[in-house]
Amino acid sequence: MSVLIIGLVIFLGAHSVRIVAEDWRRAQIARLGEKGWKSAYSVVSLIGLVLLVWGYGLARRDPTVLWTPPPWAPHLAAPLTALAFILFPAAYVPENHFKSLFKHPMVTAVMLWAIAHLAANGTLNALVLFGAFLVWSIVDLMAARRRDAIANVVYPPGRFSKDLICVVAGLVAWVVFALWLHGVLIGVRPFG
């Protein structure tokens, strides 16, 4: 469990710099340049991601069961993760309704992903991993909305053609991940 926790601290810590140390972040960008900052940020994030995936895999070998997920949990997890996969590209596709509605669709996607996985898993390692991501996403969303309010950010209205791009890209990625990659990378096949 310690490798998982170290990975979470590194990964979520890197992704929390803007929440807790915006002035320091700006100073580092000024010192390193945009590319230098993004490179360092990416390396630290990748190290954290590798550690948390490895740590989660280690913790799954001898799980501590906290509760038995209800039989409806996988039926809830499937549409929540599908929506999360749609919201993820919505963060990058301009002028879509998801972005104008949710403002920060990627963080909302992480929140939905975490809720889906908390519902479908009842182990301590799942609670640590998905619970940490859920708490982080809530805090990050509040911080992002506060930054938007201070900067008077207005999101443009969406266009259905842009929504279609998000939906198709998200659902194709979700199907590939749910039916194939999740089993290969995570070792669990959500649909048997």
UniProtKB/TrEMBL annotation:
Which of UniProt's keywords are assigned here?
Answer: Membrane, Transmembrane, Transmembrane helix
- InterPro entries in the cross-refs: NnrU_dom
One Pfam family this chain carries? NnrU
Record keyword Membrane present: yes
Q: Which residues form the signal peptide?
A: none
Query: Which cellular compartments is it found in?
Result: Membrane
UniProt topology in membrane: Multi-pass membrane protein
Residue ranges of domain NnrU in the record: 3-190
Q: What sections of the protein cross the membrane?
A: 40-59, 71-92, 112-143, 164-188
Name of the protein this chain belongs to: NnrU family protein
Record organism: Paraburkholderia kururiensis
